[in-house]
Task: structure prediction
Amino acid sequence: MTTQTTPGLSETPWSPRSWRDLPADQQPPWDDPAALDEAMAELSRWPPLVFAGEARDLTAALGDVCAGRGFLLHAGDCAESFDGVGADAIRDKLKVILQMAVVLTYGAGVKTVKVGRIAGQYAKPRSSPAESRDGVELPSFRGHMVNDIAFEAAARRPDPGRLLESYHHAAATLNLLRAFTKGGFADLRRIHAWNLEFAAASSEGARYEQVAAEIDRALRFMAACGIDLDREKSLHEVDLYTSHEALILGYEESLTRRDSLTGDWYDCSAHLLWIGERTRRLDGAHVEFLSGVRNPIGCKLGPAATAAEAVALCERLNPDREPGRLTLISRMGAGRVRDALAPILRGVAEAGHPVVWACDPMHANTFTHASGYKTRRLDDVMAELRGFFEVCRDTGTWPGGLHIELTGDDVTECLGGSEEVTDADLESRYETMCDPRLNALQSLDLAFEVAELLRS
Ligand code: PEP
Ligand code: CO
Result:
């Protein structure tokens, strides 16, 4: 227990388990409390996945974004799969993120802070606790941290053992990411190798190659001027931070540790944790939990959010008004972003709260296609982004970041793009376990568009 108190709520002192006294939405109906306790006890004995100092570095980097000196690229899977920890899948996702970051940094001239929805994004909120098919009703799939996707009673039963499996999958993923980002793969001199094979022949691939060639030339120029590029660490290594929605609070509680240096609590399951649109109620368990850990945190804001709610979330989640601590992620929908977001931006600015404002142009633009597939149109995604940039300009707000769902695989889950995915293509490579993701080409398209928006 710490002496920290929870502003706005009774005198409850914050602790990693104080969330348990509050309503916790979207928690699995675990049916074996003893097995859950055992899994959590074991998890709490295992080493942290990330370190407090790394989380502080990310807060500092986001503090720069807050001040208009950087841009947050927050991207990755909607739901990571336990079957997706193969080296190739992780490498290809990283390639797309690195490519997008290059396009943004080179195209817009701002530092890009890279945060993956990766190494822990195994749990999903659901609109309904149950799913029916042909008269059979089973618990909904809640992500591999909780149950399995097969429509069978045994697969859908929440299994606390999956909390431990999540840890191992996150650890394996993170280990490879650390090797890739610090061990040479992310070296800017390898920039051409990040172009995925299937992308290289496309117009986006060619456009990327052009940027890569210009960067090559700039590097050769610097070397010719006598600058020792070998000694410039920032050219050879990349900081890629991890994040996921802090949804299953037992998992997060078990990985929360007190930092030996500062005495503060950190959720060591990832560098950044965010609160989803469905669990951001002020008096709820998720807000309580994240209010007490010192990681940088995020919170989604959908079209029903009000300025007063946003300000109250700022007070609750960032009472010390530390720049970089809080990222608010707007996900309003292409048609509503202008009207819905402007009053919120104004309200938070008037209250004097430092916030990184990011745009998730995906989650409010999802619809079910006539074929039955859940999908998104790239045109809507771009339209919401343009609306976001416009509202930011009108309110004098720095458009701080982009939050998207993507994969390095050549999937056909979202419609449109320069190499168009058509209605008829949807079924050919629709592989997501949850929401439709942008493929590598669509992600590159988007990065070029955002770089242009940032420049203007
Ligand atoms: C998500 O980011 O995958 C998600 C469920 O988003 P939201 O909470 O905004 O609906
Ligand atoms: Co999603």
